[in-house]
Amino acid sequence: MKSSKNKKIKQELLHRHSANPIITIKDIPYRSNAVFNAGATLFGDKTLLLMRVEDRRGISHLTVAHSKNGLSEWKIADRPTFVPEPIQYPEEVWGIEDPRITFLEDLGKWAIVYTAYSENGPLVSIARTDDFKIFERLGAVMLPTNKDAALFPIQFGGRWAMIHRPVPFSYPSIRADVWISFSPDLKHWGDHQILFKARSGAWWDAQKIGLASPPLKTSEGWLVLYHGAKQTVSGEIYRLGLALLDLNDPTKVIRRSDEWIFSPQEDYERVGDVFNVAFPCGVIQKGEKINLYYGAADSSIAVATGDINQMLLWLKEQG
Ligand code: BMA
Q1: What pTM did the predictor assign?
Q2: 29 C-alpha to center of ligand 1: Å?
Q3: Which of 145, 207, 271, 277 is the pocket-test mutation for ligand 1 (most atoms within 8 Å of CB)?
Q4: Other C-beta atoms lying within 10 Å of the C-beta of residue 250
């Protein structure tokens, strides 16, 4: 007979919504190639998504969608909301991608941390907004190659903190780890340090990892969802794992999962422009429940629900 502990461990932590994928290219009111990796936030009484839309040149921009229940009846803007401005911001020449949204409590504004695709590779840029109509750009804040970045909603000792993922030259082969940096003003960043490392060999999170959605504040620490991109002969598999950071000092990793908690499994996650990708950029927290919005196979947007307490318990059980 299985023990109740075993049962707990076997339980899935994230549950796909039955109507997945919730937004596909057919829902976009203008001609484009794909809609995927979306940032998410609560805006008034609605869930707002800032969706990455890739046009038929291959260049991405961001478009707003909102919904009362965060699952269905999405109202999608009939034109792009936040578009690359390569004349003033040359680092956006090949598009803007993968936004992560954080409401900055001290400023009463949202910060959007996004990937600007420059001629020297992807880098991290930040913009602020208070209405998701007008965006104030702070420009490029991290050099290429760098992506998978998001801010914490509060300051630590008077400084903002950002998680990001540079791809430096590592010996003996490329290895991309998750880093954390600090800033007094959101524009100038320093005190860079590795937060947690990619594993190696056969692990699901070997060689290349990156932040998924922005960190979630919980009673036990900052809960971080991250992706691991396992290299296989038929390409990479993007899966998700968990880490927990100290509430007062987010440079301290309290726990990290050994096993992944979510992996491409359904057809819409397995087949698309890029096969085998589940790539969350947005999360909505309501009490202990979360809605996790993820790009599926770089082709559509899907949502999975989860319970923060179960995730914390599972992390503890993993040791
Ligand atoms: C990552 C990013 C994501 C993308 C993923 C899978 O490196 O470029 O935008 O969804 O690869 O292709």
Answers
A1: 0.96
A2: 24
A3: 277
A4: 20
Lining ligand 1 with CB less than 6 A are 37, 97-98, 238, 274, 277, 279, 295, 298
For the chain, the residue count is 319
Tokens representing 247 are 């509430």
Q: What does the buried/exposed string (b/e) look like for 41-77 if buried means 16 or more CB atoms within 10 Å of the residue's CB?
A: bebeebbbbbbbbbbeeebbbbbbbbbeebbeebebb
CA-298 nearest atom, ligand 1:
10
| Residue minimizing CA distance to atom 9 of ligand 1 | 98
Ligand 1 pocket: which of 52, 279, 299 to mutate (most atoms within 8 A of CB): 279
In the chain, where the domains are located: 21-318
Give the distance (Å) from ligand 1 centre to CA of residue 36: 10
Q: Check: CB of residue 52 under 8 Å from CB of residue 98.
A: yes
Q: Are 285 and 219 in contact (CB under 8 A)?
A: no
Domain 21-318 has CATH 2.40.40.10: no
Distance CA 297, CA 248 (A): 36
Q: What average pLDDT values come out for the chain (319 residues) when binned by 10 residues?
A: 49 95 98 98 98 98 98 98 98 98 96 98 98 98 98 98 91 87 98 97 96 98 98 96 98 97 98 98 97 98 98 90
